[in-house]
């Protein structure tokens, strides 16, 4: 015989010839040699998984049996706290004062129901849960097994990892820029130009942009490119230079309806640069220089005419008024005198009279 002591948090299973005969609570017990006893901690999962043990009538009141099917998970809570997650299989837990609660969840569909976000964010859930975040400036589109199902507003999303394939496409709701650079285009009179164009747009229909259209940004690029080529190809070089500020208005009218079919709203666009070939640029510079010279000559002739007219008017006034002529004469004498540093006087006693004759009649 041997003595076995079972503690408060333990239970003992007594086997005789591998047949369960007793379930023992806390206490001290004596056993004969033909009996075997296994002691288990009631705060731990029951380790035996044989179906016949679970179904034994002696264990019926002591164990809680949890069966998790192939398309399910079981969430195990102890005192309302997530303890573990059970994958498909059969599990047993001792019934004790630390009461366990169980929540069976189905994995048939990717959407999660009746499980709080606080639980889904636990580290234990990472192997079983998909997590996608849509930023405040984005919208998302969810595709299940390649089929579009819904548009996702900004937020944090959790889905089960199951047999379904989940793909999320994200689009920016903010205003975006598109530049169309280095477009070589022939004008109507065969002048080859390089055009740089800029465009601002915003996504307004995400289903059209991501589901009905393949690569909406490239599609928009081609629309603007074709509109530019069609418009500029129908103008001569001189007409283009005269109408370059109207090009944007004509392009936006051309592509507005087509861009809406792509789920895009064109907000603004404009012609950034018109780059001329070297020969044309030299000719344009020569034309500009000739125009500026002509303007300068015209201004000079206008000023000369005004100056001559002023002199003529002055001469007429002096001819009619002897005093005015004398004042003008004195003005010039004063100017001449200002340029003289010194005067040497020599001669007879009539010097004063001679000076008088110089400055007066």
Provide the succession of SSEs: EEEEEEHEEEEEHEEEEEEEHHHHEHHH
Flag low-confidence runs: none
Instruction: Count the E strands.
Output: 19
The helix content, as a percent range, equals 25-40%
Strand order of the largest sheet: 3-2-5
Biggest β-sheet strands, sense, barrel: 3 strands, antiparallel
**Percentage of β-strand residues:** 35-45%
| Outline | elongated
Structural class: alpha+beta
Radius of gyration equals 51 Å
Whole-number average pLDDT?
A: 83
| Secondary structure tally, helices | 9
Straight-line N-to-C gap = 168 Å
Can you give a write-up of this model?
The protein is α+β, with helices and mostly antiparallel strands and 361 residues long. The chain contains nine helices and 19 strands. The protein has a three-stranded antiparallel beta sheet with strand order 3-2-5, with no helix packed on it. The chain has a three-stranded antiparallel beta sheet with strand order 6-10-7, with no helix packed on it. The longest helix has 43 residues. The radius of gyration is 51 Å and the shape is elongated.
List keywords for this structure.
3-stranded antiparallel sheet, 9 helices, about 350 residues, elongated, alpha+beta
Provide a short characterization of the protein structure.
With 361 residues, this protein is an alpha+beta fold. The protein is 34% helix and 36% strand.
How would the blueprint of this fold be written?
Elements (H helix, E strand, L loop, with lengths): L1 E5 L3 E7 L2 E6 L2 E5 L3 E7 L3 E2 L4 H4 L8 E6 L3 E7 L2 E6 L2 E6 L5 E7 L10 H4 L8 E6 L3 E7 L2 E6 L2 E6 L5 E7 L3 E11 L5 E12 L2 H7 L3 H18 L3 H7 L3 H15 L2 E12 L2 H43 L1 H17 L12 H9 L2
Antiparallel strand pairs: 1-4, 2-3, 2-5, 6-10, 7-10, 8-9, 8-11, 12-15, 13-14, 13-16, 17-18, 18-19
